[in-house]
Amino acid sequence: MLPALLLSLLAGTTASPLPSRAPSLERSIAPRDLVAYTTDIQIHSSCNSTQTRMLQQGLKEAYEVASFARDYVRTNGANDTVFKTYFGTDSQAYPSVLGAWDALLSSNKQGVLLRCDDPDGNCVQPGWRGHWRGENGTSETVICDASYTDRLYNAAFCMGGFVLAETAPSLYWSVDLIHRLLHVPQVTYSAVNHYAANLGEVIELAEHNATLSPFDSDALQYFAAHVYALEVAGGGDRCIGAVGDHSHAAADASATTSAALACHTHSDGTKHCE
Ligand SMILES: *[C@@H]1O[C@H](CO)[C@@H](O)[C@H](O)[C@H]1NC(C)=O
Ligand SMILES: *[C@@H]1O[C@H](CO)[C@@H](O)[C@H](O)[C@H]1NC(C)=O
Ligand SMILES: *[C@@H]1O[C@H](CO)[C@@H](O)[C@H](O)[C@H]1NC(C)=O
Ligand SMILES: *[C@@H]1O[C@H](CO)[C@@H](O)[C@H](O)[C@H]1NC(C)=O
Ligand SMILES: [Zn+2]
């Protein structure tokens, strides 16, 4: 009975005459060439099987951390204490942050590529773990050999005395790859950028000048690491440390100490370390 009814309804829909405006409507919705869409990030043939497997795992974990951050924002909203710590209290913050994570997760990754050779010759520089290729390959990111020996997987979040307030979370593959993907123009159409140079500046931005906080790469990374460390890794306050306690000097000092560990060059040639 129901299937038959549905069938006749569907048939009725298909057969129903188009409204008189149909010709112009038809033109405006005429099929366009479909853009190929994927959320898969390519791994270049310069990566051997070990590197490929490690990057695949890292990317999976980057999506895990990003998905958790998005779900956390969606669920807990803009009045959440952790949210306000990183993104402030501007009325636009909620949809902006949600949008930034959604863009990272669901933007078209067609052509987005990680590679293991060193075509720009940057990996020889001490402390370099990788870099966005900028004008030499706008959708390409080089991952340097050093990454494979000292980046950690999510299972090690909060392990070994890691404290978010003192150590850049790019120590973890997931957060490092989130950072690198945010540099690829098509991921957020360049909306996300660097407006703060370290955790202290991220907190300052949220407190005093929050308009750009949802679009700050470090604010997004630190927020994601914070909620993942607390809610998924179960690291508690000990894993977070004195974030937002106005102990900026301490946070800044340690950020500087680890600065040499995570440098990369931006399209305008400026070197960025965290
Ligand atoms: C892949 O490359 C790395 C770094 O050059 C090397 O240490 C590793 O042994 C290689 N793995 C395989 C399976 O060839
Ligand atoms: C968020 O907090 C503000 C300020 O306390 C309050 O006015 C608003 O109603 C809260 N919004 C929600 C959705 O809880
Ligand atoms: C792009 O290539 C040029 C020439 O090889 C090089 O000098 C420059 O540093 C490269 N840019 C990046 C971001 O690596
Ligand atoms: C706030 O951010 C804008 C845009 O980056 C900048 O021009 C301005 O100087 C900042 N204001 C303060 C008080 O930091
Ligand atoms: Zn960067």
Give the helix/strand layout:
Layout: H1 2-15, H2 22-28, E1 42-43, H3 49-76, H4 81-87, H5 93-106, E2 113-115, E3 130-132, E4 140-143, H6 145-150, H7 173-183, H8 185-188, H9 199-208, H10 217-232, H11 236-240, H12 248-257, E5 264-265, E6 271-272
Parallel strand pairs: 1-2, 2-4
Antiparallel strand pairs: 3-4, 5-6
Helix pairs in contact: 3-5, 3-7, 3-10, 4-9, 4-10, 7-10
Bound molecules: 2-acetamido-2-deoxy-beta-D-glucopyranose (4 copies) and zinc ion.
The site of zinc ion (ZN) has 6 residues, from helix 7.
Overall CATH architecture: 3-Layer(aba) Sandwich
At the first level of CATH, what is the class? Alpha Beta
**Fraction in beta strands:** 5-15%
For the largest beta-sheet, the strand count, sense and barrel status come to:
4 strands, mixed
Could you please say which CATH topology applies here? Collagenase (Catalytic Domain)
- CA-based gyration radius: 22 Å
State the main characteristics.
single chain; 274 residues; mainly alpha; Collagenase (Catalytic Domain); 4-stranded mixed beta sheet; two-stranded antiparallel ribbon; 12 helices; binds 2-acetamido-2-deoxy-beta-D-glucopyranose; binds zinc ion
